[in-house]
Specification:
This protein is α/β, with parallel strands linked by helices. Helix content is 32%, strand content 22%.
């Protein structure tokens, strides 16, 4: 068993909870991680390279173990000192339990945005990242535009709405204002907000992956805002598209719930999604986004 894989506590049968042994050593290790991260944040100011690599919508993924081997095989001995390990992980078992609801058949545009368009993916698959590694060239803005294009090719009236946002501060207010202006001129049936999770756990960077046709792809995590109007209905819609994704590609998606609103009151159907994490390559994100777009098209037609 690979004791390094962080996955969900309510994971699929092939996963089991991590043994909580050597409690004293674990506490000391956790304190050390906090101190190291605090030092890194101080030195780097949480801007530039560090924020682009690790900034993003963090999830509540927790440490478990998974079967060693296959796409989740990981050799920690290959990670040099001072580096962040990039750990292959399956988040599909953490999905929120909710009754699936069919998406309403409503005329109008599908608008795709990236409220944090600066969140970068890795340029290639890696086993580790050095603290001074440059951010990848491609970001969630590229993936959001790709999703809109893929939906349009499927016959969906979809459009990518670019947002001029460079930091998390005030980002949702800016996104809301732009969506309000857009809705004043167009009927909108669905909004998709593309993010990339941070998922830094115990000093490791999580790489959320599934496999399709012999290639790895970034898993998609639907985030349901618990404080938004109709959160239970929103969860049902997310579960439906998540199920469609998992039919297209096993274990490719999961649904989580988080406190907050995340602008999900802006439309009756609003999907906030993490397509991959800081540990995923851009190519994996593109493949994951393709499965997501295919499932959305299937569910709204």
């Amino acid at each position: 068993m690979n004791e390094n894989l962080p996955v969900a506590l309510d994971a699929e049968p092939h996963l089991r909870k991590a043994k909580r042994t050597a409690r004293t050593r674990a506490v000391i290790a956790a304190v050390c991680v906090v101190l190291v991260c605090a030092a890194a944040a101080t030195v780097l100011g949480m801007t530039g390279t560090f924020s682009k690599l690790f900034g993003g919508a963090a999830t509540k993924t927790e440490q478990n173990t998974a079967a060693n081997g296959g796409i989740y095989a990981f050799d920690r001995s290959a990670v040099p000192g001072g580096a962040y390990a990039v750990v292959p992980t399956d988040i599909s078992g953490k999905s929120t339990k909710a009754a699936a609801l069919a998406l309403p058949k409503k005329d109008g545009k599908v608008v795709v945005i990236a409220t944090h368009p600066y969140e970068a993916y890795l340029d290639s698959e890696r086993a580790y990242i050095m603290p001074d590694s440059p951010a990848g060239e491609h970001t969630t803005a590229n993936i959001a535009e790709y999703v809109a294009s893929a939906l349009a090719l499927s016959g969906v009236d979809a459009e990518y709405l670019p947002l001029d946002i460079t930091s998390a501060r005030g980002s949702y207010d800016v996104a809301k204002a732009e969506l309000d202006k857009y809705k004043a001129e167009h009927d909108v049936a669905l909004v998709i907000d593309v993010h990339r999770a941070s998922n830094v756990i115990n000093g490791d960077v999580v790489r959320m992956i599934a496999e399709r046709g012999g290639e790895t792809l970034a898993q998609t995590e639907f985030i349901v805002a618990a404080d938004a109007d109709g959160a239970e209905t929103a969860a049902g819609y997310a579960v439906t598209v998540c199920g469609a994704m998992n039919e297209l590609c096993k274990n490719s998606a999961a649904v989580s719930t988080r406190d907050g609103v995340l602008n999900q009151n802006e439309c009756d159907v609003f999907f906030t999604v993490n397509i991959g994490s800081a540990g995923n390559s851009y190519a994996e994100a593109v493949r994951g986004a393709g499965v997501f777009a295919e499932a959305v098209a299937k569910c709204i037609k």
